[in-house]
Design goal:
Elements lengths: L2 E5 L7 H10 L3 E4 L4 H11 L23 E5 L16 H16 L3 E6 L2 H14 L6 H15 L2 H12 L4 E5 H6 L1 H12 L5 H6 L11 H20 L10 H17 L2 H10 L15 H15 L8 H5 L6
Parallel strand pairs: 1-3, 1-4, 2-3, 4-5
Helix pairs in contact: 2-3, 3-6, 5-13, 10-11
């Protein structure tokens, strides 16, 4: 079994698009859901719930690869716990557990990281958290999560951890905007680096489709309002005696709503927009990005870039909010 590439994220940086494409490309065996046991073990280590040598199994999503298949391991959760989590634990321990565990089975493999512009990433991560149930506004979210988000986006630290086990020359960092602007150049670089090919006709026909869409402002405000009321009732409501815990039902309804709001069919959009002025604003705009948080992230990026032009995207990634 030869693993050609390990794609470790970032979350909200085109992971779903990449996984969707790899999943339909002949000759590629994508392992995504089969990494859950590894991620679960690392999460337990990070929260001090287990100790030991971090043994785990890689389960192939669609059965074992056929001879000649190029195996790709791909999960945005490999670079750290973030989306869908309430308790994050020790990020450094999580990353070290993941990297060291994979090095035991794939020590010669290439590692790929995809980065999004920091301010867009912060807004997108907030959007995702609202879809998952938080009732906070964007400024409140940054105040609560700011320190962890800064550590999470510390690319120097992330690369150092993986380089310890795989070597710095075996780590590729790409801008997500490159995939949208020139998918052919993006995948040509992936092929040059790892030997994982994507047929040219598929690259040329690759639709510029956003997977796991962020909610539009009216839908986001509506979803946050729903989250506030759900949170209020969970804290203060009265459950009839003998009735089951409603948390699973709430989860099902919330998922139904978020996917409907992501697609935002015309009839639903009209209805939401007609009452949108009644909802409190999420303040999910560039002007509400925490300047200190963003400056810290961009200082780290500048250190990471060094003299590199980052495939022509350096200035865009390092620009201040006023320059964007």
């Amino acid at each position: 079994m030869e693993i050609k590439l390990i794609h470790i994220g970032f979350p909200k940086a085109a992971s779903t698009v990449l996984q969707s494409l790899w999943n339909i490309t002949p000759g590629i065996c994508l392992v995504q859901h089969g990494l859950i046991s590894l991620i679960d073990v690392a999460d337990k280590y990070a929260n001090g719930l287990v100790s030991g040598d971090g043994r785990f199994l890689i389960d192939f999503d669609h059965g074992p690869p056929v001879e000649g298949d190029k195996i790709i391991l791909s999960s945005e959760a490999l670079c750290g716990p973030l989306l869908g989590k309430e308790k994050f634990g020790d990020l450094a321990k999580f990353r070290d557990t993941i990297a060291s565990s994979l090095a035991r089975v794939a020590g010669e493999t290439k590692i790929m990281v995809v980065l999004r512009q920091p301010e867009l990433w912060l807004l997108s991560v907030y959007n995702q958290f609202v879809k998952m149930g938080i009732p906070s506004t964007f400024p409140e979210f940054q105040q609560i999560m700011g320190s962890y988000l800064a550590d999470f986006f510390d690319v120097v630290n992330l690369v150092d951890v993986w380089a310890k086990y795989f070597g710095r020359d075996n780590i590729l960092v790409l801008p997500s905007k490159m995939l949208r602007d020139d998918s052919g150049a993006f995948f040509a670089e992936v092929e040059r680096f790892s030997g994982v090919p994507v047929p040219q006709d598929q690259v040329e026909d690759l639709p510029v489709v956003v997977q796991n869409k962020s909610l539009k402002p009216p839908a986001l405000a509506f979803m946050r309002e729903v989250n506030e009321w759900v949170h209020f009732f969970v804290q203060n409501g009265v459950l009839p005696q003998g009735q089951p815990d409603p948390s699973e039902s709430i989860h099902v309804v919330r998922n139904f709503m978020r996917y409907s709001l992501q697609l935002f069919p015309e009839r639903l959009e009209r209805r939401i927009c007609s009452v949108a002025e009644k909802f409190s604003s999420c303040n999910a705009e560039n002007r509400f990005v925490d300047r200190d948080l963003l400056a810290g992230i961009k200082n780290g990026l500048q250190t990471f870039f060094g003299d590199s032009d980052f495939y022509g995207y350096r200035e865009r990634y390092l620009a201040s909010m006023e320059e964007l």
